Amino acid sequence: MKYMILTYASQQDYDGMAGKATGQQAWSAEDFAAMGAFMERFNKDLEESGELVETRGLGAPVHTRRVGGGLDKGVPVVTDGPYAETQEVLAGYWIVECDSFDRATEIAARLGHTPVPGHVAARSFADVRPIAESRAELEL
Amino acid sequence: MPDTEVEDLLRQLAPQVLGAVIRRYGQFDIAEDATQEALMAAAVQWPNDGIPDNPRGWLITVTSRRLTDLLRSDQARRRREDTVARWTLSGEWRVPAADLPPADADDTLILLFMCCHPALSPASQIALTLRAVGGLTTAEIARAFLVPEPTMTRRISRAKQHIKSSGIPFRMPPVAERAARLGAVLHVLYLIFNEGYASTSGPTLQRTELAAEAIRLARMVHRLLPDDSEVAGLLALMLLTDARRPARTGPGGELIPMAEQDRSLWNAEYIAAGVALITGALPRGATGPYQLQAAIAAIHDEAPTAEATDWPQILALYELLMRISDNPVVALNHAVAVAMVHGARAGLDLLEEIKADERIAEDHRLHAVRAHLLEMTGDRPAARDSYQAAAQRTTSLPQQRYLHARAARLC
C-alpha cells in the first residue's frame, strides 16, 4: 500500500531557512546543516528498508503560478504568487510503500525528531494520506 | 441458499476484512464497528440476493465506506487534537518492507495477537477475540456469557479504546515476543472453551456455542501455524474433551461423572481427530502443557471402560505437567491419579498439601475430590460432609444438584 507524507511551510519559513528574517527568526548555518544531515539519514533509511518510492522538496511558495479559476476571454487565467506570506502550503512530500497505515504513520512520526529551531518545531506537522492507485481503490 | 452457508462464509471472512481495512486505514476501533455493520448487511442481503462474485471485496468495500462515514461523524463530534494516539517509534524502526502483499492469513493472526494483547484484562481479551476474530455480535457474546448486552458493549468498547490509545500498531509482534504472545492467544481460546464446556454459573452445565466457537478458532490458528505443537495440542485437548460432551449430562441436565458415562455416546470422530493431532505433535520437540493435557485426555478417551483406564500412564503425564506448570487444578488432578494408582489414602494425603494453596482452598473442586476419595476409603460421614461443602462452593446449579445427590446417597 502506498501513502503520501506531506509537510508544510509558509514563505516566511522558507525565508528563515534561507537565513533571512522576515517575520520569522532566521536559521543559523548549524541549524540548517543539522536538518540536512537528519533528512539524508531519514531518506537513506527508507531506501534501505525498501519503503521509499520517491521524495521531493518544493521550491519557495513565491514561485507559484496558479492556473485557472475561470477564463479571461476564453483563455485560462494565470496568477503569480497567489499565497500570503504566512500561509502554510505544501513544502515537500514522501511517497512510501509499506504494509499498513500504522507503519506509514510511524515513518511520519520520525519526522517529529527533525532537528529544527524551537519556534519551527512547535508548529511543524506532517499529514499522512493513503494513495488511491486505481479507480477501483478510489471507489473504496 | 441456506443461511448457515452464508454465516460460515461471513465468520471466515470477518477477520480478513477487518485486517485489510485496518492495514489501509488504521482506526482499529471504528474499523471493527464498520466491519460488524458490513457483516450484518451481508447476512440480510446475501441469503436473498445470492453471494456476490467476490464476497471479500464486497465486504471490504462496504466496510470502507461505512468506516469513512463513521470517521466523519466521529471527527465532527470532537476536535481531533485531543484524542490522537501517541506515536512512539519502535526500537526496530528499519524493518524491511515486504515485497509481497500481506497474506490474509497474517491479518487474522495479527488481529488475534491484538485482541489478546497483554495490556487487556482476560475478560476483555475474550470478548474482543470473539467479536473481532470470531465475527460474533455483541448480543451473541453477551448471551454466551450471561451478562446484559449493555455490559458487554461497554466491555468491548473499553477494550477497543485501550488498543487505540496505546497505539499498538497493526503488525506481527517482534520475533522475540512472539512465543509469549502466542501463549496469551492460546490461553484466551482455552478460557473460551472452558467457559463453554464447564460453565461457571447459570442453570445449564454447558454452553455449547462457546465450546464450538473455541474449537473453530483453534482450528483456524492450527491452519495458520500447522507446525506449532502447542497449537495442535490445544486443538487436540478441546476435541478430546468435547468428545465426551454427549455423555456428560443426563436427560435432566444432571452431571454424570466420567466413570459412569455411557462411552458409546462419545464422539468417535472427535476422538480420532484429537488422537491423530496429539500423536503428530508429541514427537515434534518441546512438549508444552496443552500437549500433555491432550495426551491425558486421549488416554481417558481410548479406554474402553473406566476400569480399563491406564492410570499409571496418566499419573506419569501429570508428573511431567506438574514440572512445567504451577497450577493448583493440575495438582488436584495429579492427586486423583495418585489415588487411582496408589490408593485413596495416598491421594488424600496430597490434598492436605494442596489445601494450603489459597488459589484453590475455597474451590468446590477440591472438596468434591476429597469427597470422592473419602467415599473410596469407606468414610461415609466425612465424604458426605465434603460433598456438602463442595455444593456450597459452586455457583453452577447442575453441579450443586449432583453434589447434593451424592451426599444424600451416603445418609
Can you offer a commentary on this structure?
The complex is a heterodimer of chains A (140) and B (411). In chain A, 32% of the residues lie in helices and 30% in strands. With 140 residues, chain A is of the alpha+beta class. In chain A, the strands form 2 sheets. A 4-stranded antiparallel sheet of chain A has the order 2-5-1-6. In chain A, strand 3 and strand 4 (75-80) form a beta hairpin. The two termini of chain A are 14 Å apart. With 411 residues, chain B is mainly α. Helix content of chain B is 69%, strand content 0%. The longest helix of chain B is centred in the first third of the chain and has 23 residues, at 3-25. Mean pLDDT of chain B is 88; it is low at 96-100. Chain A binds chain B through residues 1, 45, 48-51, 97-103, 105-106, 109-110, 113, 130, 139-140, and chain B through 22-26, 60-61, 64-65, 87-90, 93-99, 102, 169-171.
What is the strand content of chain B? under 5%
Largest sheet of chain A: 4 strands, antiparallel
Radius of gyration of chain A: 18 Å
* Shape designation of chain A: flat
Poorly predicted residue ranges of chain B: 96-100
Helix content of chain B: 55-70%
Helix count from the secondary structure assignment of chain B: 19
Largest interface: A-B, 21 and 24 residues
Number of helices of chain A: 5
Computed Rg of chain B: 24 Å
SS-based class of chain B: mainly alpha
The average pLDDT of chain B is 88
Strand order of the largest sheet of chain A: 2-5-1-6
As residue ranges, the low-confidence spans of chain A are: none
Describe the global form of chain B.
elongated
Summary tags:
heterodimer, A: 140 residues, alpha+beta, 32% helix, flat, B: 411 residues, mainly alpha, 19 helices, 69% helix
